[in-house]
Design brief:
By secondary structure, the protein is of the alpha/beta class. The chain contains 18 helices and 22 strands. The protein folds into two domains: 232 residues, Rossmann fold (3-Layer(aba) Sandwich); 235 residues, Rossmann fold. Strands 6-7-8-3-9-10 form a six-stranded mixed sheet, with helices on both faces. It has a six-stranded mixed sheet with strand order 16-19-20-13-21-22, with helices on both faces. Helix 14 packs across helix 15 and helix 15 runs parallel beside helix 16.
Length: 494
């Protein structure tokens, strides 16, 4: 058995009104991938920030190679061979890929040309076939996360802390990441891996530690524990799986005909009332581009969009909202929420006519609307003045869903709706989606999380290279079938 390279003993941390960590112990062996699991708010990220030096512990000890770390800071952590890949992206979006990869360690006597050449070599390992001069602002969420990973690897770290590293990555990118992690293991590097995706945990980790309410719930060899037991330890209770949506779809509420942009080609979709339609596709397949056209973000397209048989082609975002369309974006922190604003302001954002009169805000009405719909989605606060950025990932997503419930939207577009949320919150969001479709409403879920689509959707359309390659009823199919079509392995264009 390999010796521990990093040991954490009896770590405690309290924030105002919250005890985040209580006597937490954790150890990382040389050459292993150690998964750290727990619901949002369990203390995972706080523990990692303490190890890296972003947050100071109240008490406890941290040992690196049997020597206690008395003074910890990010710069000293990098010197000690510890790199953190945070859940929140830290790229400088106005700088290029190469500049971000070398950020903080720019070689003083190496030309920009050489820096780009070295970056290109790293990018090839991730199958990133674009110029290293590309500004980070032009990258998708998944590609930005990939650059974060490359930056950490460029520091030759021997301990990598990965907090939700695959959020927004395609299945192919995840596969490539796992190959690199296995190579790092062979080189005796160690990885602390935080993720809510159970299939990833069981594929890549050697051991698992579970935190619940800031306390250790247990450490196990991955081969010796089941998914069901982990979920039970995380939640402190057994979580029963929900039945699939059983509504009989009604009349058509949305039609997309021959939709074309420079990224998607001849997309045809129909959505019926009471239906949950899935769009399965890998990152870059065109999933998000379809939503951008339907919601009015992109008005430069060919084809037609009909809502309740009304021609809404080339409509604006305001028109789309008026027609009953709501959008939950894949990146709630960048494009879904105003993180510095209250829960009430975020929920009532598209409702100016209801809460303003003669340019004066009716704060009582805004509070009442927000309170009513936050309760409907099970938001974990009754304080509508609470700042949205301080909520957990699952509760932030509930705020965005509550917004469209309050608005009375009839069609909800959900792009990667459960990225970065814990198992319990994921089940709650799935249940909200099902409840939303009980009646006249309908939902389209676009996701690279194929097990999620199989759990909640009635029908699934598979997208590859900007085209529909297959449409399937959700009966007797599995993840491998969807992945086969999404990668065009055995798929056919229809």
């Amino acid at each position: 058995m390999e010796q521990s390279i990093l040991s954490v003993k009896n770590i405690c941390k309290t924030f105002p009104g919250v005890r985040a960590l209580q006597n937490v112990c954790f150890d990382l062996r040389q050459g292993e991938v150690h998964a750290l699991l727990g619901e949002n708010g369990a203390g995972k990220s706080t523990l990692m920030k303490i190890i890296f030096g972003l947050v100071k512990k109240d008490s406890g000890e941290i040992f690196l190679r049997n020597s206690e770390l008395k003074s910890i800071s990010p710069s000293k952590s990098y010197e000690n061979g510890i790199a953190l890949i945070p859940q929140e992206r830290t790229l400088l979006t106005h700088k290029s890929i190469a500049e971000n990869i070398f950020l903080g360690m720019e070689p003083a006597f190496v030309s920009k040309k050489e820096m780009c050449a070295q970056s290109m070599e790293m990018m090839k390992r991730f199958s990133m076939q674009i110029s290293p001069d590309t500004p980070a602002a032009q990258l998708s969420a998944g590609m930005q996360q990939t650059v974060e990973i490359m930056r950490a690897m460029n520091r030759n770290a021997q301990i990598l802390i990965m907090d939700e590293p695959t959020g927004g990555l395609s299945a192919q990118e995840v596969k490539k990441l796992f190959e690199i992690i296995r190579t790092l293991k062979e080189q005796k590097a160690s990885v602390i891996y935080i993720s809510h995706r159970m299939e990833e945990i069981f594929e890549i980790s050697d051991r698992i530690t579970v935190l619940r309410d800031g306390k250790n719930a247990g450490t196990f060899d991955t081969a010796d524990i089941t998914k069901e037991k982990i979920i039970e330890l995380m939640a402190g209770k057994k979580i029963s799986s929900q039945n699939q949506n059983k509504n009989c779809p009604g009349e058509e509420i949305l039609q997309v005909k021959e939709l074309c942009t420079n990224k998607i080609h001849n997309i045809n979709l129909t959505l019926r009332k009471g239906e949950i339609l899935g769009i399965a596709g890998l990152l870059g397949s065109g999933r998000t581009e379809i939503f951008e056209c339907i919601y009015g973000i992109n008005r430069d397209y060919r084809g037609k969009i009909l809502i309740n048989s009304k021609d809404c082609t080339h409509h604006s975002i305001t028109d789309a909202i008026s027609c009953g369309i709501g959008l939950v974006t894949e990146d709630r922190k960048r494009t879904g929420l105003s993180l510095k604003s209250s829960v009430a302001k975020n929920i009532t954002l598209p409702m100016e006519k209801k809460i303003f009169r003669y340019a004066v805000l009716n704060s009582k009405k805004a509070h009442a609307i927000s309170l009513e719909h936050s309760a409907k989605v099970g938001l974990n606060t009754s304080d509508m003045s609470f700042i949205s950025g301080n909520l957990s990932g699952g509760n932030q997503q509930k705020v965005v869903i509550a917004r469209w419930l309050a608005k009375g939207s009839k069609v909800l577009l959900l792009d990667e709706p459960t990225v970065g949320v814990d198992v319990n919150a994921k089940q709650e969001i799935h249940q909200l989606i099902r409840q939303y479709c009980n009646g006249e409403n309908a939902v389209i879920v676009a996701s690279s999380d194929f097990p999620e689509l199989l759990e909640i959707c009635d029908r699934i359309v598979v997208i590859a290279r900007g085209q529909v390659v297959k449409e399937l009823e959700n009966k007797g199919i599995d993840e491998k079938i969807l992945l086969g079509y999404a990668t065009s392995a055995g798929g056919e264009k229809i």
